[in-house]
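Fig. S4 source data, part A: sequence.
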Amino acid sequence: MECLIAIGSSILRKITEYTVEPVGRQLGYLFYYRSNIDNLRNKVRELDNRTTNLMHQVEAAQRNGEEIEADVEDWLCKSKNQSDEASSFLANEGQIGMQHCLSSSMVSRYKSSKKAKKMKDFVNEIQDGDKFSKVSYRPILQNSVENKGYESFETRKSIENEIMEALRDSSVSAIGVYGMPGAGKTMLAKEVANKTKDEGLFLQVAMVVVSQTPDVRKIQQEIAEHLGLGLDEENLLIRAVRLRQRLSKEHKILIVLDDIWDKLDLWDAGIHFEDDQKGCKLLFTSRSLDVLRNPMGVDKNFPIEPLSSSEAMNLFKKMVGVRAEPADFNPWAIDVVEECGGLPIAIVTVANALKNQGLSVWKDALRQLRNSSPTNIEEMSEKVYSSIKLKAKSLLLLCSLHEEDARIRSENLMRYGVGWGLFQDLDTLDEARDRVNSLLDNLKARCLLLDGSYAFEDFSIVMMHDVIRDVGISIASNERRMVTFKTAFKLEECLSKRKLTDSTAIFLRDRDVDNHIGKLECPELELFLSPQSTFLVPDHFFEETKKLRALDLSRGNLKSLPSSFFVLQNLVTLCLSRCKLGDVTFIGELNNL
């Protein structure tokens, strides 16, 4: 009997499951029509809010140049499609809802309620799938090395081909390119790097400037950025370990170390390839073959010689235009090009200076080129010095005072220039800013300055070729009595020997907080620029600088302004940004600010 009861109960459950419950659900669609419509409307509102919030994150990431994760884009697409479909459905229901009530169209209400319930369930599924570990990622840069203005010369094609062959040789791990300043080493290295990328020889190319005073942290950072590697550590050795570990995973990468002056410990910098990484290479450029051979141990080195006479003339004519063609100009063009010594940077600089100028300007330029005195800068060609000197101006000299490979903000140049009195014919800072930008564009067009701006920056940045900077420093020192110091110790040494009594401008960059300077015995000083320096400033520091017109102590080690500040009545520009100062009310007594 109990067995029969159990069987009967089971049969009843099945009957209920297949008949009563489905009927109940179907009737529920009819009875809960309004509830299902309202629930869908609320869920769509929640979905739209979540979509809007996520889109804000996406837009912020895209503004930072980041790529959006695929699952995020897929979710946004599904969310939009479902929201559009549900909104259209709800809008339609709103229009015919009254008809449902008046006509008691139970079939129509049943269908709409059922559809609303299914849509709500699908919206729930979409909302449950929005748990993302991250919205975006920073892509590894794949762009080629910019090499604007590169000229291909016949005499250098063989060297270029030999460098390419060396890079293809699995037994060669390092290649060097050497030559005098201005010969075109950097541009040739960039051209080779781009060709190897196009050929598929390397998947990645990272190019960094080493310079005379290498900044290992900067070198590490620039290589890491090319690899998409974040280096957050402060310790240089730990950063080097992380960089070596990352490079060990590469199979086809070329690292170009441009402008190397002396030994650079690659291991300590984090630049190292294992023996089995045959597809990974180093390419160096240097002024010295000895540096490449001995401390760096480069396998193969290639010289970059000055241009031939015909190549030099062709480059000059291309840059200067039709002016070099007439019979009365041509003899002078030949002499001018000869004075440039076959160096591309000298030829381009002089040609830009003479473009669209009359014959008298050409004759005067040649006299200046021939009469210029040689400079004592190591390896600097007299003819490079004289050709660049032709167009050197006050703004260019201000740039040359900055440290090597500095990214120089046009805004700072404007402030210094206004203080120095370069723009006395202008009335407003906006006018001065326009003048500076115009002058910088002119200097960049004449290859005296380089564009150092990034696409995401909203201000102008310029940089200097090291040859131009060397020349600028020489001109500034010899003709304008403008000097630059790397340390406060060197400045103090010159002050103690009274070597700076006629100096008009001093640029100091010192990060040693223990350094002290006594007094600036510089009665002719008009500019003292020391941003980011940390030397201690004593109270009597400015007592003998009454002619000072521009002063920059931004980010300096200042607790208060020295009492000698009162003598700076001629001061026009004062930069104290990011200085933690106390009472500064007496600055108001400096009437020219």
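Fig. S4 source data, part B ends here. The longest strand covers residues 204-211.
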